[in-house]
Design a protein that fits this description.
The chain is of the alpha/beta class and about 525 residues long. Helix 1 runs parallel beside helix 10, helix 5 runs antiparallel to helix 6 and helix 14 crosses helix 15. About 30% of the residues lie in helices and about 25% in strands. Strand 1, helix 1 and strand 2 form a beta-alpha-beta unit. The chain contains 15 helices and 34 strands. Strands 5-2-1-9-22 form a five-stranded parallel sheet, covered by helices on one side. The structure holds flavin-adenine dinucleotide (FAD). The site of flavin-adenine dinucleotide has 34 residues, from helix 1, helix 7 and helix 10.
Length: about 525
């Protein structure tokens, strides 16, 4: 059998488990397995809320993908385009500003979903989703920062905003986030002498008439009562509509003064899948019972949260990790079946049950017909999720984290994370290339000091088109036309440049007419000389 290229998009539960199963089912000479993910690690989302309080340390909740599936080639890039007809996936640039095209024989799409802020003013700027490690870290840092500030702040109104935390969405993730947040804020606040417990507000906003709609009314009411007892305010039958830097605005018109808004709902497909022209239902990619993308059977499969699938008995497959991991096994079997020309299997996993942690030694569980609440459910929650955590080293580390959390108060260290700036400074030595002909147009440059030359490749070798000096700009033509560079720029002397990234350039162009006119004029002039 000829060696086949299997390409998996996404390194979450769906993607990583598909790769793990394929590695077991196929020999190395049968298939080359590649996986594209924006990070080189897999995030164990069910335990992510515990990063807020630090009861699980930051890197213990993630596992390196290479260790989980050592035979799979990891491509740490962003998927930008999927061409189902040409059977090619385009991924973003790396250090070298060139896109990479990845051809495939079999494709598995497992890109999950993203939080949808469409039509909700101010949410992109002022609300935080909660899905990734950086979201958990940002929230933890924000909470610690807010406590530090509130401790020295004398303005009553500002103190109120700093000490109010709003979480939108009363599903599993929203409930687990508010429970963990509430525990952490109230415990950590004891170290701040100027903060009184009654000043702290943790608010959960949910659109239904009870939280945890996936659970029985009895368990949901237990969770609701327990959270209220611990000081969480629960706002029902309302939803977050908009946000500003000063408040959360609900559909009912209620305004909650706050500096911290977390939104766990609603969700939608990542952009690259929104743009994909294929069958969709309920905003997800439609699969058949064998988890193949409709109209691309035998070539493309969809697994995890981005799939609209039903089980053998006709039930909709819910967006949970337990379903994504089982669906991954079915997909791996069906990819193997397609390679071997055998019959694919139908997905028939109906779920083992539901568990939600309520923090502080409490949870609710509805597992294999058993309904538990309080400590037994919490014990079950921890046991199940610890056993399910992939990798022995992570299990041991998390066990150790939990043990130390029993002995010591929560850690309040705020890790300052450097965020990538959209405008940066760069230095080039004489002879060094700033960018090459054919590279992606991903930035515009302004010369602060020094000189560079613009070169174009011709049949007779490189031809010098211009020399640029302090105050000159370059690189705008490819950015404005969204094309590749049509020339190479090389430093002639020591060169200092200001680099404006494409997203920042686009934002300035859209909002500052003078900026747009200057660069458009320059690009037109240069195009005329070409
Ligand atoms: C806080 C929280 C708690 C949860 N608790 C539970 C629980 O207790 N039990 C349970 O069963 N489920 C739980 N879930 C749900 C569960 O985590 C998801 O159902 C599961 O992660 C879905 O797996 P997936 O592979 O479809 O998506 P994901 O795990 O989200 O993986 C998608 C991957 O694709 C990557 N990606 C996306 N777009 C691109 C792109 N363009 N290019 C490259 N890579 C890309 C992402 O970075 C990510 O790594 C929880 C979810 C959250 C957020």
């Amino acid at each position: 059998m000829q060696m086949k290229n299997i390409l998996i998009l996404g390194g979450g539960f769906g993607g990583v488990y598909t790769a793990m199963h394929l590695e077991k089912m196929l020999r190395p000479e049968q298939a080359r397995i590649s996986l594209v993910n924006t990070e080189n690690y897999f995030v164990y989302q069910p335990m992510l809320p515990e990063v807020i309080s630090g009861s699980i340390s930051t890197t213990d909740v993630v596992s390196p993908i290479k260790r989980l599936c050592p035979r799979t080639r990891l491509i740490m890039r962003e998927v930008e385009k999927i061409d189902l007809d040409r059977k090619v996936v385009t991924v973003s640039r790396g250090f070298r500003p060139r896109r990479l095209e990845l051809p495939y024989d079999y494709l598995v799409i497992a890109l999950g979903t993203v939080t949808n802020f469409y039509g909700m003013p101010g949410m992109v700027e002022h609300a935080m989703p909660f899905r990734t490690l950086s979201h958990a870290l940002m929230l933890r840092n924000h909470v610690i920062h807010a406590l530090e500030e509130a401790d020295v702040e004398t303005d009553k109104e500002l103190r109120r905003k700093l000490l109010t935390f709003v979480v939108a969405g009363g599903g599993f993730s929203g409930v687990e986030v508010i429970a963990e947040l509430n525990d952490f804020v109230r415990t950590a606040a004891r170290s701040y002498p100027q903060i009184r417990p009654e000043e702290i507000r943790c608010v959960l906003v949910h659109s239904g008439d009870r939280i945890l709609p996936e659970m029985t009314a009895g368990l949901a009411n237990f969770a609701q009562d327990l959270l209220r007892e611990r000081g969480v305010e629960i706002v029902l039958n309302d939803r977050l509509k908009a946000a500003s830097s000063e408040k959360a605005i609900l559909r009912s018109g209620t305004e909650i003064p706050t500096k911290a808004i977390v939104s766990t709902a609603p969700s939608c497909l990542p952009d690259v899948l929104e743009r994909l022209s294929c069958a969709k239902s309920g905003g997800r990619l439609t699969t058949n019972g064998e988890l193949a993308l409709v109209s691309y059977e035998g070539q493309v499969w969809v697994v995890g949260d981005c799939a609209a699938s039903t089980t053998k008995s006709g039930n909709r497959v819910p967006p949970t990790a337990q379903h994504a991991t089982r669906a991954a096994k079915t997909v791996a079997r069906n990819v193997t079946a397609a390679m071997q020309g055998s019959r694919p299997r139908v997905f028939d996993f109906e779920g083992l049950g539901k568990l939600a942690s309520l923090g502080h030694h409490s949870a609710v569980a509805d597992v294999l017909g058993m309904r538990l609440s309080g400590f037994p459910a919490w014990f079950l929650w921890r046991t199940v999720y610890l056993l399910k955590m992939p990798g022995l080293d992570r299990k041991v580390r998390i066990g150790a984290d939990w043990f130390s959390a029993l002995l010591f108060p929560p850690d309040q260290v705020q890790l300052k994370i450097l965020t990538a700036s959209s405008i940066a400074q760069q230095h080039f030595e004489p002879g060094e290339i700033v960018f090459s002909e054919g590279d992606l147009g991903d930035s515009v440059y302004v010369i602060r000091a020094g000189e560079c030359e613009v070169l174009r490749e011709t049949a007779r070798g490189p031809q010098r088109l211009a020399v640029l000096r302090q105050g000159d700009y370059f690189g705008e033509m490819a950015v404005l036309s969204d094309a590749s560079r049509n020339a190479t720029v090389r430093a002639v002397s020591a060169l200092e440049v200001l680099v404006i990234s494409k997203p920042m350039f686009d934002m300035l162009k859209a909002n500052v007419p003078v900026f747009r006119d200057v660069f458009q004029g320059l690009a037109d002039q240069r195009a005329a000389l070409d």
